Amino acid sequence: MRVGFIGIGNMGLGMAANLVKAGHEVAAFDLSDEALARAEAAGCARAPSAGAAAAGAEAVVTMLPAGAHVRAVYRDTLFAAAPAAALLIDCSTIDVATARDIAAEARARGFAMLDAPVSGGIAGAAAGTLTFMVGGSAAEFAQAEPLLAAMGKTVVHAGAAGAGQAAKIANNMLLGATMVATCEAFLLAEKLGLDPATFYAISSKASGQSWSMTTYCPWPGVGPETPADRGYQGGFAAALMLKDLKLALAAAGDTNASVPMGAAAAALYQAMNNAGAGGRDFSAMLRFLDGAAMP
Ligand code: NAD
Fold first, then answer.
1. Mutate to test the pocket of ligand 1, among 33, 61, 63, 173 (most ligand atoms within 8 A of CB)
2. Rounded to two decimals, what is the model's pTM?
3. What's the pLDDT at 86?
């Protein structure tokens, strides 16, 4: 397929590279020249503008920072530049309301459009092991599935337009809350005199078990290797967790959903971010709660 790819950042680069590896012809655009040079090195053609990336494309994928960027790129460029038959796929993590608005505007113009945010991080983007949560009609999903499968290992149809973003922010709100809870449980256990490795051995097999504990353990030297073992560098930045928690709280406000644990997690990640530690992995919440100097 001829694919236009807009937003070749940390995530977009690996995703575009995997499309090339799967035999697709990718025209890439980013505002950053360095990003475009990396895309070229990964086998993409360098497009001089978003419009040029979309011209003649059978599918256009966007991987942009936030809702404002997505609105601008679709309204200012893609709706005019993409061929009428092009499938539009936004993989950015954005608010549900923007995802629904842009999908409705796309449909009004005759485009097929999906929201397809991802889980799996930069490593998953590079390895092609992302999970895609997809919102759109069944027919649009069927059209997009092979392309998404070239960039990920799990592709799930979550429901109608916006359902992918809804799944993503609800999941990440749960992740933020369980990470904070896992960090405070380790700190309490240690202050009560337990060896953290012993606490891990018990809790990872008991009812306190969660992904935050067994796959992404925030205590260094305990469980599998995680960012905690690398000084909390790399992984999923606390600032990105804060972004997702804010999207969840905004959606909860719009729908009158009660999310006290999500709100508590958001306040803590906001405080960690204010302390200058937004670039650390989100499991550095352990150090923040322990009163360690940040960042
Ligand atoms: P990033 O900042 O590294 O990349 C975004 C890219 O978009 C940048 O290269 C930027 O120059 C480009 N850009 C911005 N406006 C543009 C425009 N108008 N036209 C063309 N290019 C433009 O961000 P990222 O880490 O790659 O994340 C991208 C999206 O994926 C975000 O919505 C993020 O929340 C989501 N996400 C990130 C991760 C992660 O671990 N990094 C995990 C899951 C989801």
1. 63
2. 0.94
3. 97
